[in-house]
């Protein structure tokens, strides 16, 4: 057993943790980062849920499945005839795994480049703070204890299971199992019409599954602007996703090679559905089990999240927490921003994270992205506003792409014209939303965007036109 002293120890190497470690090292601290995620060979696989079984592999499969769907349905329109189209699912999954490994290796390289000491194992508080700092026990292939003057907890989250229906990752799947199905299921059930449910449902629908999505809430995508959500529901249904809202799940029963779900639909009628696989995506829970919070006296709230203030400080001196394990949206980029802010606060700087301008994205096709307030929120607040929309159907680049579904929607203050929210459903919405984030960070008005020259032909012109629509003066619609 060795004993090592560090200025900063980061527990967890997901997006928040590895970025926090790198920024702290840039600021001159001696930094260690501990992460237990392993690859198939038992080696380190930093990057957390996002890199290993979340953002990165899901985008890889979304891209591959979209290529497959285009080859089977839309290439002909472009004058490209494809005969003998077949699916090699093994190769598709292999490519996904390669993308994941490239990201894992990239993080390890960044640690080396920035002189961050990486420990492959599970970290936990071993006791209260002493003159040497906080003792952190690392268990794994090479157990040891290290001491930290400052600790940043970035342990992320786990998929929430349905009571009585634990994940076996063979028939009842979390995001982990949903990314590793070895044969296209004829009938796929998805419980939860959130980001993960819709993205995974889209992947397997494109590859040939009959996908049924069961959502407990009476509204579709309740966090999304209502107008955008209605458009999404219409488009996804047209694609072939069967979306049932207001469902009450009564039981989930595993058979030898299928899963039976008994539920009441929105009308209250009893329904029995049998699926080859069932994806459960009903939210995530903070990953604080085994952290040794009780040994250090670290306070958790009633839901298991680490209690923090606006600066990500916990109840313990020099202990911070970021990302999915604390309040706020469970988004990789939110965790990254908090990681940078905390490292800078440790250095005596003024790190900052603006929750009002964190973008959200759902990587379906069409993509959905938004930042700021929704129209229903503004109505509920009594905030005076003006709305402007522009359809991609009227955008030249979208026509050339052959992807004209959706729209851009601007919401601006009725008196000051300050942009309050931007909502996009359509091609490359994930990229287009960045302009809105920048504009809102600089407190721009809709008129500012309307007056800025946008390249032609480009999808971004739809953003300019939606800003013009605030004042009812679109030029191409």
**Number of structural domains:** 3
The N- to C-terminal Cα distance equals 71 Å
- How is the biggest beta sheet arranged? 7 strands, mixed
Annotated CATH topology of the largest domain = FAD/NAD(P)-binding domain
The mean pLDDT is: 97
Strand content: 15-25%
How many individual β-strands? 22
**CATH architectural category of the largest domain:** 3-Layer(bba) Sandwich
Task: Quickly give the structural class.
Answer: alpha/beta
| Unreliable stretches | none
> Can you tell me the overall shape?
globular
CATH class descriptor of the largest domain: Alpha Beta
The Cα radius of gyration reads 24 Å
In oligomeric terms, what are we looking at?
single chain
State the helical fraction.
Answer: 25-40%
- CATH superfamily assignment of the largest domain? FAD/NAD(P)-binding domain
Helix tally?
14
EC number: 1.8.1.4
Family: Belongs to the class-I pyridine nucleotide-disulfide oxidoreductase family.
Organism: Pseudoduganella aquatica
Protein name: Dihydrolipoyl dehydrogenase
